[in-house]
Design brief:
4 helices; 26% strand; 45% helix; 110 residues
Length: 110
């Protein structure tokens, strides 16, 4: 009986750690709620937020989420299903990834 309880606790702990690691990949999350931009996590660049407001207005978006995902190449955008492809491309066009680990900036400067 004690072994079963221990195994259940261990499994719960493993799931919790996996969830935290999976969630840590997001540098920021921007939500679109009723056509308004709200920061749910992190600190996206202010210039990007201003541009997001314009894209949301032009494409008449009412809801969705924009995720800034940490990758080996820096921060890349991903989107929830509520955001159609055309606005996604508009968000990508205004995204200027801040320099942070991952990329080969030394090669570009040379």
């Amino acid at each position: 009986m004690m072994i079963a309880i221990f195994l259940l606790l261990l499994a719960g702990l493993a799931v919790g750690v996996a969830w935290m690691l999976w969630d840590a990949r997001y540098v920021f999350i921007v939500a679109i709620e009723n056509g308004k931009i709200r920061i749910k996590r992190g600190s996206p660049p202010e210039k990007f937020l201003r541009s997001c407001r314009i894209v949301v207005y032009l494409h008449k978006l009412q809801r969705g989420k924009i995720y800034g995902e940490r990758t080996a190449a820096g921060v890349e955008l991903s989107f929830s299903r509520e955001i159609p492809e055309r606005p996604r491309q508009a968000f990508r066009n205004v995204w200027d990834s801040p320099p942070s680990g991952g990329g080969d900036t030394a090669k570009r400067r040379a």
